[in-house]
Amino acid sequence: MKKLTCITMVTLLTAALFTGCSNSGTSLGSNKTTDNQKTLKIGITQIAPHASLDNCREGFIKGLADAGFVDGDNITIDYKNAEGEPSNATMITDNFVAKKYDMICAIATPTAMAAFNSTQGTDIPVIFTAVSDPVSAELVKSLEAPETNCTGTSDALPLEQQMQLIRAMMPDAKTIGILYTTSEVNSLTHLEKFEELAPTYGFTIEAVGVNVASDIPLAMDNLVTKCDVINNFTDNNVVNNLDTVLAKANDAGIPVFGSEQEQVKKGCVAAQNIDYYELGITTGKMAGKVLNGEDISKMPVEVISACTPVANQEALDRFSLSITDEYKDSVTYLTAGE
Description:
It is a single chain. This protein is an alpha/beta fold. The chain folds into two domains: about 40-155 and about 275-305, Rossmann fold (3-Layer(aba) Sandwich); about 160-275 and about 310-335, Response regulator (Rossmann fold). The protein contains 13 helices and 15 strands. Strands 4-3-5-6-7-13 form a six-stranded parallel β-sheet, sandwiched between helices. The chain has a four-stranded parallel β-sheet with strand order 9-8-10-11, with helices on both faces. The longest helix is centred in the N-terminal third of the chain and has 21 residues, at about 1-20. The N and C termini lie far apart (about 80 Å). Residues about 1-35 have low confidence and may be disordered.
């Protein structure tokens, strides 16, 4: 009887052992599994807490859900914000890599570069969004064939359409002022293109570079003495301090044109707007394809450049500006809180 009991116990223990093994599933790391399905961990890193990048993040999560990956269900999202500091971005992505996350979503160029560097020597894919020039940032070999562990969406600003809008609204303006951050690759690319376009539309460009946020007040004091109008790019440092830029420009009687709707809501007079929420959705759907096994190194970067004009009526009135006839049928008027 004792011998039979021992045999029964061994049988039960062996069955339990094999049952435990059968529930482990296949995984890309050590994350727990439930019902043979791994809960994937995705780290989202954002360079600064401003509205256009928030729209990217919200769109990304929506795009992931559309692709079948829902936070709290089959994925867990860990969101971190670098608060405008590239050094923080590096610490965040290093931490994501140390925890062996299954994917990193990097919002804006500085965080994408940090994620790319942190993930070298690993198999962790990086999906980026709101990166204007991923080739110059050395995230991909080309837009058509990345050949790296990165791909995503590029917010190629419609710079010529923007300059056309400025010229239409300010026919007598001669000089466009640009405030940019010297370490932001996307801003350098935009500035170079803007300078190339300027003679075609009768403008000269006066550019003032800054390194950190504390440089902006003095730089603006200098810039407003040299230009008739200011154009703002998607420079993360500058956008994160847009209140300061607008206050200095308004005091000097210089209108500021933005590059997307959130800047216009804050007080820029107008912009040729790219929809950053839709940009994020596209990025999330691309991430879903990678999570489902598609080779990220062969997935082309999707460039989003479609734009529509937006304007802030209060800001227009402040500078006695108006939307010209060619834009009246397509412009959308925005105010804070919309």
